Here is the input.
Amino acid sequence: MHYVLTGSLGNISKPLAERLISAGHSVTIISSKADKVSQIEAIGAKAAIGSVEDIAFLTATFTGADAVYTMVPPNFGSGNWKKYIATIGENYAAAIQGAGVRNVVNLSSIGAHMPEGCGPVSGLFYVEKALNNLESVNVKHLRPGFFYPNFLANIGMIKHMGIIGGNYGEGTKLVIVHTDDIAEAAAEELLALSFTGKSIRYITSDEKTTDEIAAILGKAIGKPELPWINFKDEDTIGGMIQAGLPEEIAQNYAEMGAAMRSGEMASDYNANRPEVFGKTKLEAFAMVFAAIYAQS
Here is the structure.
């Protein structure tokens, strides 16, 4: 079979491509950067260089694919992040329809049941909606939890302030996931192509409270007493702006944190909690975290 993947050589798309190629299938990887061609070809895939904002390019690239994997790449330069995310979803839907693709695995997120109030994830609500409106197309939406690598953004805070934290709320249990476990789930869906209609698959590797996260990461870096500090929304926004993020992006992240704190972000997940978790627990990622911490 032939698969087309968006996401360039990201933390999910690259291991996903490697799994599909090792199973004997052909893979085309879409990237916006021409300097990625040699790296894409080195893993045995074909490169398609273009923009996910270009429907004609997407349609041409999707044509002939047995299935496509869609994800919305980050764009911190967007003046309206949610609208940008929703627009890319509409682009994908138009290209899928134009190319006659019949199977889609779409990277969404826990919380994508919320049309408002969940930051960038509310943009993914509209991506799912655009794909769900396609007739005669089978779509599997992957809704993973909070990515482990997101904790790497806290390294500076730990080193300079001796704390780790966010506006997620005191004692909040987070649904967290290793990106390789997401790639594994995406590969399972694409290789089997047994899904029909429109459906959702939640993906998680672990569930930990904020205090447990601080304890596990703190132990790995030799700071077993590392405290988790809960921030006010306005302080979270101010800190991210000070760190260099645009205000609009910072506000979206703070809104998502508030949805985690209220429990609404995880409400549909809790009602449809998967019986099987991914294989990589937070303790295993903590070793990777510690190595990067030591080098930073």
Notes: The mean pLDDT is 97. Residues 19 and 188 are 9 Å apart (CA to CA). Residues 81-99 form the longest helix (19 residues). Residues 2-145+178-203 form a domain with the Rossmann fold fold (CATH 3.40.50.720).
